[in-house]
User: Fold this.
Amino acid sequence: MSRFYGYGVCSVCEIGCTKGNYIDHSGKRYCSACWIEKENPDHPDLQKIKSEVKEAAEKWKRQKYVKEDGPLPIGPYSHRN
Assistant:
């Protein structure tokens, strides 16, 4: 099984990309906010989109590194109490 290394970062703003929040174009990765800014700089909700992308990236980072399932098992074999 292949190993998952993450979605990478935006080549413009260096924000971590999340699932469904990035576009690969001509060998560069853009977050959706930077892509919209590049293609349509007069978009009325551009600031709102940028803040949503930043919040999604920070939320994904917290979920990625927090383990709420419980502690790891003791040793490589099942543990009997």
